[in-house]
Design goal:
Membrane topology: Single-pass membrane protein
CATH class of the largest domain: Mainly Beta
Pfam families: Ephrin_CRD, Ephrin_lbd
CATH superfamily of the largest domain: Galactose-binding domain-like
Number of strands: 20
Shape: elongated
Radius of gyration: 25 Å
GO biological process, one term: axon guidance
Subcellular location: Membrane
Distance between the termini: 80 Å
GO molecular function: ATP binding; transmembrane-ephrin receptor activity
Number of domains: 2
Length: about 280
Amino acid sequence: ISYWFILCYTLYLYMSNQNNTTNISFLFPLSVVLLDTTAALGELGWKTFPLNGWDAITEMDEHNRPIHTYQVCNVMEPNQNNWLRTNWISRDAAQKIYVEMKFTLRDCNSIPWVLGTCKETFNLYYMESDESHGLKFKPNQYTKIDTIAADESFTQMDLGDRILKLNTEVREVGPINKKGFYLAFQDIGACIALVSVRVYYKKCPFTVRNLAMFPDTIPRVDSSSLVEVRGSCVKSAEERDTPKLYCGADGDWLVPLGRCICSVGYEELDGSCHGKKTMLD
């Protein structure tokens, strides 16, 4: 199977996706990015096991920005077991992480003579670690997160017909207790291009509600459990009822309770307290 075809198709999808992206200055909830392969300027330097499995391919888009992909397409050979491992990723303050993968996958039915050897899934694994393991890699130390399947697979005709079939899948992992972790991708016989990987965690962002300030807060791993956060009054304000918000698992602030009020001689304006004007002003 031609890597050139996979590469051309991947570049086409990536640039089409970039051209249709709208810049957003601020998002709620707040996502803290731990890894984003689209932002890497140099080689990713991920490890492949065995060496003749996944291939690293870097090309430039129309804005002269590098596109780092990893591809594998050994669909003619049985018993494939190709691993791709990221570098060590610091978890920062994360308790739960999200792994976003964008990839293309070839339809096995569109490839002749591969019945029984071609697959249309790959596996995602992780391993926690307090430090980098360098070149050491032992698959049995990794925990499986999920089997990843494509919503849409592409055929030889799709590129010519300008049909976009870039898949996006997100998986949650947690709790993360050690200082960092590795991700690993296992190919068992698919024709796949891993276009980008983004790893992030969510937090409830700093906000001001009812004249009370609430700091950035990391949600709990348990999606049914909320973090109670007590707010502090803005300048020239005082508590009327204890201000509280609850940080949800997805980084959303919920259930506002209590409030602050402006101190005597001040009035509320645009979320803060300002001195009242007098007749002499």
